[in-house]
Structure formats: structure tokens, C-alpha cells
Amino acid sequence: MLGQFFWGTTWIASKEGVxxxxxxxxxxxxxxxxxLLYIIFFTIRKAPWPKGKQWKTIFILAAxxxxxxxxxxxxxxxxxSSGLGAIIGACVPLWVAIISLIRGERLIRxxxxxxxxxxxxxxxxxxxxxxxxxxxxxxxxxIVSIISTVTWAFGTLYTKKKSxxxxxxxxxxxxxxxxxxxxxxxxxxxxxxxxLDTIPAISWWAIGxxxxxxxxxxxxxxxxxxxxxxAHISTxxxxxNPIVAVLLGTIIFNESLTFPIIIGGSITLIGLxxxxxxxxxxxx
Length: 284
Description:
By secondary structure, the chain is mainly α. Helix content is 79%, strand content 0%. It has 12 helices and no strands. Helix 1 crosses helix 4. The longest helix is centred in the C-terminal third of the chain and has 28 residues. About 2% of the residues have low confidence.
């Protein structure tokens, strides 16, 4: 539970960090440092490296989960509130259900009830931001945030399909390191990166927090929970993250906490819970 709370705070750290530097460069640095630390740790312990097709899985997950999902969600909160970004980020189960349906899987009625409920909640949340949609920056933030949840959903399904045949913690480090190289290359090629000595201290503090809390502690705790805790416990993060982000965003950044956001966000989370429950029953 504590880990899930701190994961929610990473939205605030990302929001603060991207105020003063390019979002994708922040994501690259955030992923490079812990990725390198993981690699050094497992190299010292003489852990076996991936072989053959294991590398393919790691590269695909690096692209889906970190280059696209983490990179785009970080980019998104540069233009939208951290709370709204977290609510959108929590919608991954909806995309998992939709992708499964497109693939031809038969879903139970409860899944569709959850989908409709969550969609209704999202509509209420966005109703409070109708005027904001006139801003191209806000539109861009929403689009990249939604794409980030879709790629995370594909990453989730791919992980289940390619069940762990390699140390998941070492794999996590390799994914972060590989994704950081890709992001560094992209920001360098597009000329969007800024010199490291021009990045203000507040952004470095945010990066430090994201490295320690967001990329080492919470991801490690998440993998551990997937391996050792019941599914209904390990997925609680999806409901806690947006609550923490919305409340802290209101307190720290004075982000609006209106009635539609409270009601719409609550309805969305209820729908997500129903979808998660239905997906587990469907697999059973």
C-alpha cells in the first residue's frame, strides 16, 4: 500500500520536473540512471544475461513500457494537470479489455458494464475541461497521455503472453537502460535536448525522486507484488495513483479540484475495478 501511495506521488515529481526541461529528456535521464544501476548490480552478482529470443522480449517491452508509455505520459503532464494525467493513466485496464475484445476474446457482461461505467466517468471529467480543449497544447497533452496508456496495455498483454523466462528485475533494468538510449538519441536528433548544466536544481531533485522512488522502489515493489500477492491486491495501484495525484496536485500546484472531477474520477475508478474483476473472472 505504501509503495502504491509513493507511485502516485511520481506524477507530481514529473509535473515539477517538466516545468523546467524537455519532458523526453527528463524521461531519458530518469530511466538511464536506474537502468545502469540495475545492470551494474546484476553484473557484480554475475547474473546470467538474456539469450536469444529473450532479447527480443526485452526490446519490445522497453519500447512499449518505457519509450512510449513512460515517455509519453511524462510529456503529457507538461500540458495537462498531474491529476488528469493520472486519471488517464489509470485507464489501462479499459484498453486491455478493448484489445482483448478486438482479438476475438469473449468477454463476460460484467466487463462491458465496467467499460461503460468508466467511459461515463471519463466523460464527466472531460466535461470540466471542455474550454481547455480549445488549447492545442492541452489537446496534445491529452492525446499523448492516452497513447501512453494504450502502449502500456499492449505491454501488459505482451508480458502475459511471454511469461517470465528471465530474471524480471534484471529485465526491468535492461528495459530502462535501452529505452533511455533510444530517448537520448531522439532528443539529440531532434535538437530538443538542453545542456545538462542548464537544468535547474528543482528538476534534478525531481529526477532524483523519480529515480529512487519511481524507477527503483515502486517498480521493484510492483514486480514483487505481481509475483507474491493476489491479483486483486497487486492491481490496487491503478485506483490509488490517481487519488494521490489529484489530491497532491491540488495542494502543491493549486490544480482545480472541482465537483465533476471528484464525481467523474470516482465513477471511472469504480468502472476500472469492475473491469479488473471481470477480466480475472473471464480468465478463470
